[in-house]
Amino acid sequence: MKKFILIVCFSLMIFFTLMGCQSEASNSADDSGKTVLELWNNVAAGRSYFPKLIEAFEKEHPDIKIELNNLNVESSEAEYQAAISDKSLPDIFSTDAFTINELVDLDLVHELDDLFPKDVRAEYTEGVFDEGNASLNGHTYLFPVYKGGTYYMFYNKKVLEDLGIDKVPRTWGELNKVGQKIYKKSDGASYGLIYGGQSDWLVNAITKLFASELSPESGYDYKNGDYKYATEGYIETMKYMKDLLDNKALSPSTLETDSTVARELFVAGQAAFLIDGNWTGQLLHEDGFNDWGVVPLPTKNSDGKQYAKFGLVSNDGLYVAKNTEHWEEVKTFMEFLRENIYQEILKDGEPLIAKDVADFDVDLPFKEMNKISDIFLDMSIRVPNPIVVNPKTQEVKLELQKNAPDAAPGSILMGYLTGQVNDLQDELQKYEDGYNKAFTDAIKGHEEVTREDFKFPNWVPYEPYTEEDYKELK
Question: What 3 state SS string does 458-469 have?
Answer without folding.
Answer: CCCCCCCCCHHH
